[in-house]
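Figure 6 in text form: structure in, sequence out.
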């Protein structure tokens, strides 16, 4: 159940060009958040910007009673957020949304494109700490080497991490979907497809390509959809997407969906 609270910023650091990481104190969110959920952050006490900003929960620490958010400066709201100082408070609503479903699959492949990698670290660490031992593979993609998110921390949670960059400045040159094809053909292999689940978050075109691939190979796939939001609690209907069972709200019926549910449109 989400709550609204004002919580203190413990750390605030720039981790890449235009990308920042916030560590926020919250005993409640740190104890109750699930991988794939998000919070709504009020940026200012003024009316401009009016709407909260939805940010995926990147990581949590029950021990330290805190959680982390990653964000990229892309407009006025996130520009103001980047100026928030350690020790100040943010008005937070969360945890919100439907989380990733952790099943009995023996193999988990996590695919993140750009800032879509943000919710996958908490998932990777949860999978690693779970009662069932899994083979965990992580594919991280970005435009350039500098924008690859938290590679070293992902390596601590995964059996293998593979990098792809659009410009070829680091890792493999190309898209994460190409890396995924190679991983499925040469590492996981068809004998294990029925015991594999793919978890993906990133741009719509990336998720569409991954969904098509998993349909062809009959592999379970969960996708976290990126969508502009207003209320974040299912009231305003501003974040709906088309699914096979009608329109659904990304904020509370998602952001995580079975890839087979989505009516994919470019």
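Output sequence:
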């Amino acid at each position: 159940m989400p709550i609204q609270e004002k919580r203190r910023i413990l750390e605030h650091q720039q981790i890449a060009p235009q990308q920042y990481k916030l560590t926020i104190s919250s005993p409640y969110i740190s104890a109750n958040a699930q991988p794939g959920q998000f919070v709504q952050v009020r940026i200012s006490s003024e009316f401009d910007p009016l709407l909260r900003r939805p940010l995926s929960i990147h990581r949590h620490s029950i021990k330290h009673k805190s959680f982390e958010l990653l964000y990229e400066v892309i407009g006025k709201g996130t520009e103001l957020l980047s100026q928030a100082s350690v020790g100040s408070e943010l008005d937070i609503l969360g945890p919100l949304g439907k989380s990733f479903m952790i099943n009995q699959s023996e193999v988990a492949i996590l695919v993140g494109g750009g800032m879509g990698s943000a919710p996958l670290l908490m998932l990777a660490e949860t999978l690693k700490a779970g009662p069932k031992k899994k083979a965990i593979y992580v594919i991280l993609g970005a435009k350039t080497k500098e924008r690859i998110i938290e590679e070293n921390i992902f390596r601590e949670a995964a059996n293998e991490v593979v990098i792809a960059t659009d410009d070829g400045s680091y890792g493999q040159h190309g898209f994460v979907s190409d890396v995924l094809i190679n991983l499925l053909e040469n590492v996981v292999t068809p004998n294990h497809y029925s015991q594999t689940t793919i978890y993906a978050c990133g741009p719509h075109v990336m998720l569409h390509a991954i969904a098509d691939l998993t349909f062809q190979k009959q592999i379970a796939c969960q996708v976290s959809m990126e969508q502009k939001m207003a209320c974040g609690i299912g009231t305003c209907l501003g974040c709906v997407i088309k699914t096979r069972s009608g329109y659904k709200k990304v904020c509370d019926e998602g952001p995580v969906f079975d890839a087979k549910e989505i009516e994919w449109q470019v």
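Caption detail: The chain has a mean pLDDT of 94.
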